[in-house]
Amino acid sequence: MNDRAPSKSQPPEKRARVRATLKGRRVDPRAREEVAALLKDRRRDLLIEYLHRIQDRHGHLSAAHLVALADEMKLAMTEVYEVATFYHHFDVIKDGDTAPPAITVRVCDSIACEMAGAKDLLAKLPGILGKDVRVLHAPCIGRCETAPAAVVGQNPLPHANIEKIAALVKAKAVKHPERGSGGKHPHLEIVSPACVDYAAYRAKGGYALARSCIDGAKQREEVIAVMENSGLRGLGGAGFPAGRKWKSVAAEPAPRLMAINIDEGEPGTFKDRWYLERDPHRFIEGALIAAWAVGIDEVYIYLRDEYHGCRAILEKEIAALQANPPCKLPLIHLRRGAGAYICGEESAMIESIEGKRGMPRLRPPYVAQVGLFGRPTLEHNMETLHWVCEILERGADWFASQGRNGRKGLRSFSVSGRVKKPGVHLAPAGITVKELIGEYCGGMLDGHGFYAYLPGGASGGILPASMADIPLDFDTLNQYGCFIGSAAVVILSDKDRATSAARNLTKFFSEESCGQCTPCRVGTAKTLKLIEKSKWDQPLLKELSQAMMDASICGLGQAAPNPVLSVMKYFPQEVT
Hints:
By secondary structure, the protein is of the alpha/beta class. It is built from 24 helices and 15 strands.
């Protein structure tokens, strides 16, 4: 017998009342109609896509729309709410709260943009633009070569200043660039050179190699062997040998999937955007070849939400490819991130593709064994696939012969900071930062002396100019407490301080921690408080850093101490 059931022997006023409706919020009919109009399949993995559609249409996510979405997708309200509030780019509005203004200006204040004056912009813009425009600081938006960079609505603004931002805000004030578009972007201004479209790529012989592979002119084992012999390593930061990864995933039971990581949120990194804006089909063809070699029928492309222009390009070019395919194609899905640096970590990206919070998974099992939707998954950075065609066409020996100082291959260095020619510079692996600045970047800016550099973005540590002769490649920097990662090189001058750089980077890590594990969540926040002081408590910082490196679940917490440890080791004069 259920001891919670009301007893009939009790008087009516003592009996528990039975609810006429289910517990929880009732669905507003109008909100249900608005949400249902934006949905297609009610699959769980499309939750983030649908949250984007609602926000693109209405400018924010109201409680009524979240309740309606949960009901339509047969999900608990908590599942929808926890995902919507996890990502930076979703504006969840509670009952009674005011919706955000129609236009939001995001000013990047990561290291390159801070060096270029982002703090001054953030201080002055609210008073100039007024209460009808929201001004927010933003983590790296992947435009470090045009620092300071800002985004008005979804329109990037390079070399931003108050006049440029105010003019663009005025131009967009008539209508929010995304609102009412249902997820499309008819008013988006793409700040990029003309890219090679599908017709132009095919006219130059594009997709001939993929067609020859898929039609049987090449053997899978032969292609994988070329990739192995080339020495190409994963260019998202981890550096795992590409050919070996293909072989290991191909050995797992079918069906297998591919996840392509274009969530380059590492401050200082913008190479993927650089290539996407110019030649998107080069990496797509590489992906088709990899899918064929490994035996994959579905490909998921995960693109960071900051790259709205790239999303417009990819939507257009993938549609053109599918409308006139050069060969049999796998299913290609384009998924949109929502503002979370942690989703650059492969398992967090997979969680996000599945429509969940982007929290890293515990390993083992590895994603090559149990990845996307529980299937063996080939995960690659976009630039890794960008090189596949050229390596297969020109041979493994060609690629392996390109390095300097005993290293192999080519690297796309994202260079920003105090140099005359910031940008993506294709250079031999193993080049030194001194050679990179002199041969590719036009030297230091006038009036600036070389002081320090970040060899691998926010995570890669900070080295002094006196250590400018170290070859830049995988494994060459480890003995110095640094690493190359995604080859994001940020140059500091004698007008900068390593301590300021460390504070900027630690603030970024603290804000971007997913919060899943205590060492990272608490450690980054505590570190930031400690280094805000003029004199650092070095014993405590070293102890805290060791705990983070030993016990954090993923690379964010493990690498977050690198800037602080570098400063204490190589710039002691700044912290005592």
